[in-house]
Amino acid sequence: MTRVLVGQSYYLAFDSKLWQAMQPYPPLGSLYAASVLRERGHEVAFFDAMLAESEMSWDEAVARHRPDVAVIFEDNFNYLSKMCLLRMREAAFRMLGMARRRGCVTVVCGSDATDNAGGYLDAGADYVITGEGEATLAALLDGLAGVPDGGRLPGIAGTVFRDEGGTLVTTPRRGNLTDLDAIPFPAWDLLEISLYRDAWRRHERFSLNMSTTRGCPFHCNWCAKPIWGQRYAVRSPENVVEELALLRQAYAPDHISFVDDIFGLRPGWVRHYAVLVRSRGLVVPFKCLSRADLLLRDGEVEALRDAGCEMVWMGAESGSQQVLDAMEKGTRVEQIVEATRRLRAAGIRVGFFLQFGYPGEGPAEIAATRRLVRECRPDDIGISVSYPLPGTRFHGRVRAELREQRNWVDSGDLSMLYRGPFSTRYYRRLHRLVHKEFRLRSAAGTVSAPAHVVRALRPGSSHRLARARDAVTLPVDQLLLSGMQRFEERRRVHGAATP
């Protein structure tokens, strides 16, 4: 039996935007890893960085538990881990160094480590696990039991390490798990659930997260897939409902966030799930992610409604068909419009993920996206700029135009990481402008406002003044944005690079 400390390096305290929003979700990836190791007979302790103050909390946990092996197992169900925020990478590097200084064998698994194994080994990792990690981690720990201190364990598929001479060794990739029902449920009991419940009190509900699938088979060319590639695996509705029943009995969440890239991709899955939760009295309000084309399948929206869905987030991305085609998104603008209409008719709220700055996007395409938001009136929006991640066709296309900064520092960064159509300053102002337009329409009652907007508009709320400022400053922002657009277009015509 090996003493193992399992943790992750996503600290909400290091991301001011999301710290202010305060909607923390447990790290499912490391909870799954902990559960698999316990099933194999290892003695497992757990470190949760999500609500910890700093890396010093990890150092204290290592000192307290004195593990043989310290594992940083990133949450591959969290899109921010896929984006590899610099502040979180720095935290992982510090955590690896701390564990090494205390004599632990150190293992790291995650999207960034898969793409940047050498950097993590240099920072103190003994082993980097590439791709899906649970089976590889279990095999690695089983094998380490027979290796002398300081030795290296060769031959474990899915690992990267340095041999005694310092040479980087990469073993063949391990195949993905296909039977997700065979994986034990996340080790929920290792979590200090009261910390999450307290954090959610301001929202007047308590939300937990679940995953029903792994991977995505679609081909959006900006989407990185270092863990599962193009493979897609799904849990049975029965297995998901059993976990939901456990969570309801043990922790009584008011709401569930399904974190799948695509919820209910397999035909009939949502309908079957709806029948099960209704028959067992387990209908819990939830939000999920889907695609416009999938929502147009017969009965799909109605099945979501019957299952308890209260909000669907769509990767709308753009109101320009030209941009969607360039992204190889595989959806059409009219599908976004129709899917939104159907969701609304079923009483389900709609969120749009929007992406600006893709190559070929100009003023007309930006205007088309803003027009899509005005005409569809989504209930919430999330805005990003195109983010070139290693291994994507988009990254390969813009590699020669990449800037020195290759990752965002935190989720509020919004830096253009390549020389796109316009500058970082332009897109940050566009981000503010589109959000102001959205907030003002919400305040005017032309959309069903999100809960945080409703609270902000209550009598006596200081945010009412902010809405008034939005109304006053919106025309100024539009003028400034138009001026920046003309200036940068002139610079481009004359061959000057946008900053």
What tags apply to this protein structure?
499 residues; seven-stranded mixed sheet; 43% helix; globular
Question: What can you tell me about this protein's structure?
Answer:
The protein is α/β, with parallel strands linked by helices. Helices cover 43% and strands 14% of the residues. It contains 20 helices and 15 strands. The strands form three sheets. A seven-stranded mixed β-sheet has the order 2-1-3-4-5-6-7, with helices on both faces. A six-stranded parallel β-sheet has the order 8-11-12-13-14-15. A two-stranded antiparallel ribbon has the order 9-10. Helix 3 runs parallel beside helix 5 (86-101), helix 11 (269-279) runs parallel beside helix 13 (300-307) and helix 18 runs antiparallel to helix 20.
